[in-house]
Specification:
Blueprint (H helix, E strand, L loop, with lengths): L8 H6 L6 E3 L2 E3 L3 E6 L6 E7 L2 H17 L7 H17 L1 H12 L3 H23 L5 E3 L8 E9 L2 E5 L5 H15 L2 E5 L6 H13 L6 E3 L4 H10 L5 E5 L2 H10 L6 E5 L4 E5 L5 H13 L9 E7 H17 L18 H14 L4 E5 L14 E5 L5 H4 L6 E7 L2 H9 L3 E2 L1 E5 L3 H10 L4 E4 L11 E2 L1 E2 L2 E2 L1 E2 L1 H6 L2 E9 L1
Parallel strand pairs: 7-8, 7-10, 8-9, 10-11, 12-13, 12-18, 13-16, 15-16, 18-19
Antiparallel strand pairs: 1-2, 3-4, 5-6, 6-24, 11-22, 14-15, 17-21, 20-23
The structure holds nicotinamide-adenine-dinucleotide.
Nicotinamide-adenine-dinucleotide binds next to helix 8 and helix 9.
Length: 493
C-alpha cells in the first residue's frame, strides 16, 4: 500500500499535481509528464513535467543573460553569502517535507534523511556561503627587466554551468553542486535524475524564496539522453559538473568537446575496506556492514570490497553475515525499517544479474543473494566470500547491498588488492597501528581514505576520484575552484 497517507499535509499538497519547472520567472510544463515511483511499493506517488530541447534552450538563455548582466555575480560577496545562508535556513524550516520526499521518491529511510541528510544539505549552503566573502587570490611582484609591474591573480566564475546528478541522495547531491557554483558567482542549470526529481524541484523553490535572482539557478526535470545530453552539448554552457556512472561520464567527454567545456566528473566506485588483525572488530565489522548496506548500497563511496587479514578472515565473514541477516528491510517511512529498497525494478535486475554471474567456484554466498518476495524493489543484504578476485562482484560497481570479502596476508598484499580496480574513489583502513595506517593510506590510489571510519562526509575535505572514478574534487576550497577560472592581471606602474 502506498505510504502517501502517512506523510504531512504539505507533502501531499506538493504531490497533488505534476510539478512544473521554473525558468526565469515563468513556469513551464515541458514535453510530457514523468511519474515518480515509490521504490518501496512500486506505486506512483506524484509526477513532474519533463523538459524538452526548447526548455533546455530557454533555461540556458536565461542563465547566460543572468550571467552577462551580473545580477548575481556582481552582488557584493556579503549579499551572496546572506542569500545562500537563507537557503540553508529554509531547508531547515522545510526539513520534514524534504525528508518525506527523499523517502517516497528516492527510497530513503526517514530518520537518517531527517537527522543527517537534510541538515547536511543545509550545512552545505552554510559552508559555501562562508566562502563568498573569502574568495582567494594572490599578488606577486613580477621580475620583468627594466619594467615595474603590479601583478595579481584573481579567480572569476566560470560562467554558465550545467549540473547533472544521480538519484541516490538527490537533495544532498543537488546541494553539493548548487552551493559552490552559486558561491563562485556562476549561473546554473541543474538536471536531477528522472528517478528522484521531486526534492530537487522543492529545493529550487526554496532557492527562489531565499532571493537567488531569476535565471541564476534553474532545475530542469527530464531524461538524461535528452535534457542531460542537450545541456552537455550546448555551445553556451561553459562547464558541465556531472555526478553519475562512469559510462555516462565518458559519453560527456564527446558531448562537451564542441566548445571545450570545462568538465568535472564524480563517477563510480568500488571502494575497499581493509581490516587488519589488530582492529577492534566490535567497531570495524558493524561499520563495514553499514558502509555497504546504508541506503541499500546505493552510495558512491560504499565499501563494496572488504579485505580482512587472514587470521581474522573467518571471524569477519561470520560477523558480517550475522549483521546482514539481522537487517530489517522495509519502506523508509516505516519506523522499524533498517534498509530500504533499490531505486527501480531495472536497477534491481542489474544487481541480480551481477550476483548471478558471480556465483561459481571459489565464491560462497554467506547471506542474501536474492530478492525477497513482495512489493517494492528490495534486495537482500548479500555477503559473498571470494577466494579470488576474478569475480564480477569484485570487479564491477554494483550500487546495491552486495559486498565481497577476501583475505590478505600482509599490508603489501592489502594495498595490491585495494588498488586492483579501475576505480579510485574512496577506501577505509581499520587498525590501531598509526604508522601502518599512514603508510597504507599513502599507498592507496583513491581520492579519500578514512582510518577507523568509512563514508563520513566532511565539507572541508575534498572528495572525488582517481583513475576512472572521475576528474576534479567537490567540497572544501577545491570544490569551489572547479567553478572558477584563473586570471592574471599585470599592471605596469
Ligand atoms: P547515471 O550515469 O545513469 O545517471 C546520472 C545522471 O546522468 C542522471 O541525471 C541521468 O539522467 C543523466 N544522464 C543519463 N544519460 C545521460 C547522457 N547520455 N547525457 C547526459 N546525462 C545523462 O547514474 P545513476 O544510475 O543515476 O547513478 C548511479 C551512479 O552514480 C553510480 O555509478 C555511482 O557510483 C555514481 N555516483 C557517483 C558519486 C560520486 O560522487 N563519485 C556520487 C553518487 C553517485
Amino acid at each position: 500500500m502506498s505510504r502517501l497517507h502517512t506523510v504531512s499535509q504539505a507533502t501531499r499538497q506538493f504531490l497533488s499535481r505534476p510539478r512544473p519547472f521554473l525558468i526565469g520567472e515563468r513556469w513551464h510544463t515541458g514535453i510530457d509528464v514523468i511519474e515518480s515511483i515509490d521504490p518501496a511499493s512500486g506505486d506512483a506517488i506524484g509526477a513532474f513535467h519533463s523538459a524538452g530541447e526548447a526548455q533546455v534552450e530557454a533555461a540556458v538563455v536565461a542563465a547566460r543573460t543572468a550571467f552577462e548582466d551580473g545580477r548575481w555575480r556582481h552582488l557584493t560577496p556579503a549579499r551572496r553569502q546572506q542569500v545562500l545562508w537563507r537557503v540553508a535556513e529554509l531547508i531547515d524550516a522545510h526539513a520534514e517535507m524534504l525528508a518525506e520526499l527523499e523517502c517516497l521518491d528516492g527510497g530513503k529511510l526517514y530518520e537518517p534523511a531527517l537527522q543527517y541528510e537534510v541538515p547536511h544539505a543545509a550545512e552545505t549552503f552554510r559552508y559555501y556561503a562562508g566562502w563568498c566573502t573569502k574568495m582567494p587570490g594572490h599578488t606577486f611582484e613580477p621580475s620583468v627587466p627594466g619594467m615595474q609591474f603590479h601583478g595579481y591573480v584573481r579567480h572569476e566564475p566560470v560562467g554558465v554551468v550545467a549540473q547533472i546528478i544521480p538519484w541516490n541522495g538527490a537533495l544532498v547531491a543537488a546541494s553539493w553542486k548548487l552551493a559552490p557554483a552559486l558561491a563562485a558567482g556562476c549561473s546554473v542549470v541543474l538536471k536531477p535524475a528522472e528517478w528522484s526529481t521531486l526534492s530537487v524541484l522543492r529545493l529550487h523553490e526554496l532557492l527562489m524564496e531565499a532571493g537567488v535572482p531569476p535565471g541564476v539557478a534553474t532545475v530542469l526535470g527530464g531524461r538524461g539522453r535528452l535534457v542531460g545530453q542537450a545541456l552537455a552539448a550546448h555551445p553556451s554552457v561553459d562547464k558541465v559538473a556531472f555526478t553519475g556512472s562512469t559510462a555516462v561520464g565518458k559519453q560527456l567527454l564527446a558531448a562537451a568537446q564542441g566548445n571545450l567545456k570545462r568538465l568535472s566528473l564524480e563517477l563510480g566506485g568500488k571502494s575497499p575496506t581493509l581490516i587488519f588483525e589488530d582492529a577492534d572488530l566490535d567497531e570495524a565489522v558493524p561499520a563495514a556492514a553499514a558502509a555497504i548496506f546504508s541506503n541499500a548500497g546505493q552510495v558512491c563511496v560504499a565499501g563494496s570490497r572488504i579485505y580482512a587479514q587472514r587470521s581474522i578472515y573467518r571471524e569477519v565473514c561470520a560477523r558480517l553475515a550475522q549483521a546482514a541477516h539481522a537487517l530489517r528491510l522495509g519502506p523508509g517511512l516505516d519506523a522499524g525499517s533498517q534498509m530500504g529498497p533499490l531505486i527501480s525494478a531495472a536497477h534491481r535486475s542489474s544487481v541480480e544479474a551481477i550476483v548471478a554471474r558471480s556465483r561459481g567456484p571459489g565464491v560462497e554466498v554467506l547471506s542474501g543473494g536474492s530478492a525477497p518476495t513482495g512489493r517494492g524493489f528490495f534486495y537482500e543484504p548479500t555477503v559473498l566470500a571470494c577466494e579470488h578476485a576474478d569475480v564480477p562482484a569484485v570487479r564491477e560497481e554494483i550500487f546495491g547491498p552486495v559486498v565481497t570479502v577476501m583475505p590478505f596476508d600482509d599490508a603489501a598484499q592489502a594495498v595490491r588488492h585495494a588498488n586492483d580496480s579501475i576505480y579510485g574513489l574512496a577506501a577505509s583502513i581499520w587498525t590501531g597501528r598509526v604508522a601502518l595506517a599512514h603508510r597504507v593510506a599513502a599507498e592507496i590510489r583513491s581520492g579519500i581514505v578514512w582510518v577507523n571510519a568509512h563514508g563520513i562526509p566532511e565539507l572541508s575535505m575534498p572528495i572525488g576520484g582517481m583513475k576512472q572514478s572521475g576528474w576534479g574534487r567537490e567540497h572544501g576550497l577545491e570544490g569551489l575552484m572547479i567553478y572558477l577560472e584563473t586570471k592574471s592581471v599585470m599592471m605596469r606602474v
